[in-house]
Amino acid sequence: MLSERRLEVLRAIVQDYVGTEEPVGSKALTERHRLGVSPATVRNDMAALEDEGFIAQPHTSAGRIPTDKGYRLFVDKLAGVKPLSTPERRAIHNFLDGAVDLDDVVGRTVRLLAQLTRQVAVVQYPSLTRSTVRHVELLSLAPARVMLVLITDTGRVEQRMVDCPAPIGENSLADLRARLNSRVVGRRFADVPQLVQDLTDSFEQEDRGTVSTVLATLLETLVEETEERLMIGGTANLTRFGHDFPLMIRPVLEALEEQVVLLKLLGEAKDSGMTVRIGHENAHEGLNSTSVVAVGYGSGDEAVAKLGVVGPTRMDYPGTMGAVRAVARYVGQILAES
Amino acid sequence: MLSERRLEVLRAIVQDYVGTEEPVGSKALTERHRLGVSPATVRNDMAALEDEGFIAQPHTSAGRIPTDKGYRLFVDKLAGVKPLSTPERRAIHNFLDGAVDLDDVVGRTVRLLAQLTRQVAVVQYPSLTRSTVRHVELLSLAPARVMLVLITDTGRVEQRMVDCPAPIGENSLADLRARLNSRVVGRRFADVPQLVQDLTDSFEQEDRGTVSTVLATLLETLVEETEERLMIGGTANLTRFGHDFPLMIRPVLEALEEQVVLLKLLGEAKDSGMTVRIGHENAHEGLNSTSVVAVGYGSGDEAVAKLGVVGPTRMDYPGTMGAVRAVARYVGQILAES
DNA sequence: TCTGGCACTCGTGACCATTGAGTGCCAGGG
DNA sequence: CCCTGGCACTCAATGGTCACGAGTGCCAGA
Asked: Where in this chain does the record put each Heat-inducible transcription repressor HrcA C-terminal domain (chains A, B) (predicted)?
């Protein structure tokens, strides 16, 4: 196990490197931090830390920089979560209040998060699988054409056109609407299929084709729209990656455009508590030199979706984690109110 | 006026520079293009072109590169619109067919456009101001809570919660729904306000508060949601900007995140025909070294929205214009079908 | 009006010496 | 046993010099 002081040295290295973006040497360390020992001693500690794989030197005659493993130790053992300042909290409030609909909430959140952390922000829309049905509406637009509108408790609305095999009367449609709603309102999406399973049978022969088509479309919508959506922002912050950003930015931009990748990334994060993935811990190659800080958010106890930021492994972890957590909490509150 | 040959020289310079990304000299020009004259002659022509401001030399002893004015002349007089190859057209078809809803259409379009042009693609959602109302639905979720759903002819759905001053009965609500729809279905958004103006008066005293609240919300939704949305993609292509891309990319990314800027940009484009804005012709500073190729698209004769690409001024204009135009046409068809 | 020739400019890349931050190691002291 | 100061070494970065070559402008001649 590493001695107390060696951990302290690692912390100092991480802090300095995050600040200056340059390899940090033994002399500079002793000058900037009150370690109470001489550079030579620090050198020995550094050698030990390097043996253990926590730090590395880019060139033989250069200072040390933390490795992914070093950041991992720093995050797990050495760093807390820095709470936001009061002005920052107030800014969050001001910024998120006044959102008019779900799109707006997500949009504001992503901008806010990008601004606070000065990194790329990713916000997942509240997931449909975990949401419940607030209402199902059926509108007859033409004799054999019905529009299906699905409204969720998170305020999301999905709609589909249904071309019916046969015309259906207003009465039958109203009947279907009523029965459908009485069965599924307030229920979770995942439960809907079995809840509507035998609904077709209770209709007149002539309407059954249409009813089953409508139901099929509903189920299809549930499945399709369970594909989760997300919004990203603050990509301009990618230019703050460091001097080698021209090399790094491309794969990152590509990864950010692949929503599948990002969704998987967020999906890997724990449901509760904060998840930090550092460098090569990220499965996707393009993100091997980035860290992802993600956390779930929701209106109640349970997380309905996740949000987070993507930044260089050389990031201010305590500050970023603090901002991410604070934003997630406020968004949860906003969602609960609506 | 410039002689025929000088124009030919300018065309050659543009083509070579776009291809090689390096200043092009007189000797290389005569070798790669059959101009039928010697380098010395070309040098004289170049000097003339430079006097006129169509080309410039980055350093005294370097070749020439086109200026914004040079590209402008090239686009206006020298370049046609390169039609897409048959495989490319087929690819567009395959890619856009099978879109399930409006989000999907726009999403596919933006990816397609980014891929075809290898540049940043911007697609505006069909504008609400130019669309018509397909249906207005009112749902009673709680005694004094109504959900307003607005469906447009382009398949877009907007919803709002309305907190009513007093409970309203199902009958009155159905009545309102029917009258509202009979007045506004098929009408343009811009006409709706005057169409519903006197609707409140025809209701019972007790319901008037609620009715006017609902109508107010409807009008508000129309105004608010007229703020147009758009989708962008292919930002990874920004890395193809050239050797100095690290300097250019930041302001461009920032501009791309400001939807207002992009909307203004597209708004400046002509409604019909293609618009090309080159370098400093773009009002926004961050886009001073980019060109924007934009075109309107729509289901009928009239454009309901615009789409385009943002790329370096050094771009393949004929190819890009061809791709943009082709995609716009196909998207128009898709929208017309649905 | 075009062409070939010629002198000139200047960015590029190779080569080299210098500098300085940083290291590893070792002998000595608390 | 651990810490410290000293010392030799490494090596990236800096900056200067120099030759090269692509490209230019200009001019005289066809």
From this structure: 103-321
Distances (CA, A) of A301 to A123, A276, A332: 18, 21, 9
What are the residue ranges of CATH 3.30.450.40 in chain A?
86-126+228-337
Per-residue tokens: A110: 């992503």
Alpha helices in chain B (DSSP H): 4-20, 26-32, 39-52, 68-73, 86-96, 102-117, 170-184, 192-195, 205-226, 245-257, 259-268, 317-337
Is B95 within 8 Å of B121 (Cβ atoms)? no
**CB contact (8 A) between residue B159 and residue A246:** no
Closest-CA distance, A254 to chain B, in angstroms, reads 6
Specify the pLDDT at position B286: 92
Cβ <8 Å between B159 and A159: no
pLDDT in tens, A53-72: 999 999 888 889 999 999 99
| Of A22-26, A138-142, B132-136, the least confident | A138-142
| Residue B156, helix vs strand vs coil | coil
Give yes or no for a contact between B29 and B250, defined as CB atoms under 8 angstroms apart: no
Distance CA B116, CA B119 (A): 8
* Residues ≥6 apart with Cβ < 8 Å to B318: B79, B80, B81, B82
- Assess whether B57 (CB) lies less than 7 A from strand C: no
Q: Do B249 and A249 touch (CB under 8 A)?
A: yes
Q: Helices B245-257 and A245-257, interaxial angle, to 10°?
A: 30
Query: How many residues belong to chain A?
Result: 338
Q: Which two tokens stand for residue A56?
A: 């590395």
Sequence length of chain B is 338
Q: Name chain B contacts of A160, Cβ cutoff 8 Å.
A: 100-101
How far apart CA A147 and CA A150 sit, in angstroms, is 10
From chain B, the residues in CB contact with A233 under 8 A are: 257
For A121-173, write each residue's pLDDT tens digit: 999 988 766 778 888 888 887 778 888 888 877 767 777 878 888 888 888 88
Q: Do the beta carbons of residue A264 and residue A287 sit within 8 Å?
A: no
Task: Residues A129-225: name the CATH superfamily.
Answer: Enolase-like, N-terminal domain (3.30.390.10)
Q: Which nucleotide is nearest to B62 (CA to C1')?
A: D23
Residue whose C-alpha is closest to residue A199's, from A129, A138, A134, A127: A138
Using the structure block, give the residue that is written with the tokens 């990713």: A122
Residue A230 corresponds to which amino acid?
L
Residues B86-126+228-337, CATH architecture? 2-Layer Sandwich (3.30)
Q: Where in chain A is the domain with CATH 3.30.390.10?
A: 129-225
Question: Are the C-beta atoms of residues A143 and A240 closer than 8 Å to each other?
Answer: no
Tell me, rounded to whole angstroms, the distance of Cα B97 from its chain centroid: 20
